[in-house]
Amino acid sequence: MLPTSLTQPLRRLWTLESFAYSLRVFIALAGVMALCWYLDDMGKLIPLFLGIIASALAETDDTWQGRLQALLVTLVCFAVAALSVELTFAHPVIFAVGLGVSSFGMTMLGAVGQRYATIATATLILAIYTMISLEQHGGVALGALWREPMLLVSGAAWYGAISVVWSALFSRHPLKLSLAHVFRELGVYLRLKSMLFEPLRGLDIEQQRLALAQQNGRVVAALNQSKEMIFRRLEGQRGGRKLNRYLRLYFIAQDIHERASSSHYPYGALAEAFFHHDILFRAQRLLDQQGRACKALSRALLLDRPFDHGPSAQALEDFNASLNNLHAQGRDEWRDLLRSLAALGDNLATLEDKLASADNPDARADHEDSSLFDRSPRGLRDVAERLQAHVSLTSPVFRHALRLSVTLVVGYGVLHWIHPTQGYWILLTSVFVCRPNFGATRRFLRQRIQGTVLGLVAGWALITLFPTEPIQALIAVAAGVAFFATRAHHYTLATAAITLMVLCCFNQVGDGFGLIWPRLFDTLLGAAIAGLAVLLILPDWQGRGLHRQAAATLEASAAYLRAILDQYARGKRDDLAYRLARRNAHNADAALSTTLGNVLLEPGHFRKDADVGLRFLVHSHTLLSYLSALGAHRGAAGAAGDDNEAVTALADDVAETLERVARQLAAGETIAPGEDTLTRQAGLLEASAAEETCDERRLLQTQLALICRQLVAVSEAATRLSTQASRE
């Protein structure tokens, strides 16, 4: 048994998302380095290292069986790519045509699915690695046609074998990390939400709602990642106790998200009415404690420890005591506000129950619908249909594929024009820098150049200070591991690490110092070509399509509202149709937030819609919060009341208004304001809610009234977006 002082740090390392990935890379690189030293043949080191890196870049999450299948496909693709480069390397015209066609085709595979996109991109990178390796050897020797492809594919197969074995031994570990990430992001969301209850007059609610909308995008991304991981493991394995436990935790996280994103009343009105009371402080503290409980749950999942939500349970009791005190005062002017606060209390109490159930998710009812929506292609026909749907200049995937293929062909032409030393790094830089939109390209371009300069300086210093080959070999392995440990979140450091690794590896077989200036020159040239391509070749300015993404958000919200109304008519059931409508609404909201983030990185002319878009995001996310409250309080069938057809008709009108505004916004047409109608509908609903005795029907009417009033603000923001779009 290891001492506690040693096991605790090791357990914490095991909980880091990049640790297992980096450890696999370390085993692969160290094994190859040891083999080359043992055989006294360092000439094989560079292609073996490059094969390992390409294979690690092609890795996707899956079961060991799925990963084995993906590995076999990857190795075939790698072998074909490497051999194709070998056979055409000495024929520039044929090589250029093949480079353009293959890069276009492989990029288009991104339209089929993320797994296909990952393997295709890694194959393209391996093809360029083959060029680099051949250039380093001075071309293709007639008697050694198979040498480079065999070494590259061997390195890839070695890492792939480690990956498959690792997946078989630790198949549930990535899923545990993913679910822990979900609850951690939910914790941040809840703590941000608690700030809306700050009992201050004149609080900048819009800025806080914007931060909340952006965090919602992170929660949605984490949920989507977990869902895909669970689905891959469920295929052919349904019934496993451990896997079903993770599935239930995922559904608990979805329920918490719906309740956390709910809004029951304008916070400014609550702060004004209860400024001299502690109810808002109690609500704020309760949400903050529930956010901390989500973070504690995340940590408990990672470390296999018991989960304690005692502080949040106590905060709920304090909130209820404060609410009961306000009810006891019996003030008529507070009646409607207290009803909304009571609905908030019910919502947070249910959220607390969900948190408590996360400690024992196996107690969740087995009869509930636990099916997940499969977004992967179903056969070759589905693949062909997805590809055909993107063969259009309006498709971002098609435009990026065309842009990248032209970028690589131009880079290849420039390479032959100026004949630089180690010129194929130009193509590699272009592949990593050229992204589907200007914002991402600009970010990666800057980080790539900064990281390269940092890595070259560090490499020059280290190979000067440590001229012995064994130490440089250790530095190369450590740098390769650092690349994979940092590439997801710190691309500048990752680029510096991979540059350092390249210098140390090349110094094992030649002169690493001679690579410093060519690597810097090629990086600058490749980045410039990629940057110009994104600017000039079918530029995909996110600002120009902002109104369409905003329209998609409203359309998804309308579908979510109709799914909620159907539940109110037929009774609560968390079936696939309802969960899919809810997830699509949040996905659209997250996509709008991501699009706006890219718009803010675009040149000034295309960024002019950003302020209008941010305001629209605030209003649309608030609308989604009111919808989430409706969804969170679904109950028995007939909540709208069999004798209350007027409420149902008004709800249908609201959904139709949302759909109409979405259509007009997508087309860039003038949006009919409908302010008078919406205000009148809100008044009717509020009057009906004031007389309602049934809490469930009253909440339905109150939330629909809030949605009507919010639609006025949404329509105004949509009008400004549509006006801007029509001027383009």
Could you characterize what this model shows?
- This protein has 728 residues and is an all-alpha fold.
- The protein folds into three domains: 11-169 and 424-534, no CATH class; 172-359, Methane Monooxygenase Hydroxylase, Chain G, domain 1 (Up-down Bundle); 542-637 and 644-726, Methane Monooxygenase Hydroxylase, Chain G, domain 1, CATH 1.20.58.
- The chain is built from 27 helices and no strands.
- The chain has helices at 4-14, 17-39, 45-57, 64-88, 92-108, 114-136, 147-169, 173-194, 205-234, 241-260, 267-273, 279-303, 310-329, 335-357, 379-389, 396-418, 425-433, 438-465, 469-486, 491-509, 516-536, 546-570, 576-599, 610-632, 645-667, 675-691, 695-726.
- Helix 4 (64-88) runs parallel beside helix 6.
- The longest helix has 32 residues, at 695-726.
- The protein is globular.
- The protein starts with a helix and ends with a helix.
- The model has no long low-confidence stretch (mean pLDDT 85).
- It is found in: Cell membrane.
- It comes from Chromohalobacter marismortui.
- Pfam families: FUSC-like, FUSC_2.
- Keywords: Cell membrane, Membrane, Transmembrane, Transmembrane helix.
- This is Putative membrane protein (TIGR01666 family).
